[in-house]
Amino acid sequence: MPMNLVxxxxxxxxxxxxxxxxxxxxxxxxxxxxxxxxxxxx
Length: 42
Fold this sequence. Notes:
2 helices, mainly alpha, single chain, rod-shaped
């Protein structure tokens, strides 16, 4: 069924999206205003 293929593609994309969000969060908020890890890294 097509829905199984959509589900598979979604599951494949989720890790990439989370990595992209993490990357953007670290580079758009370099002063640690979003994550406590940014404060310790600074």
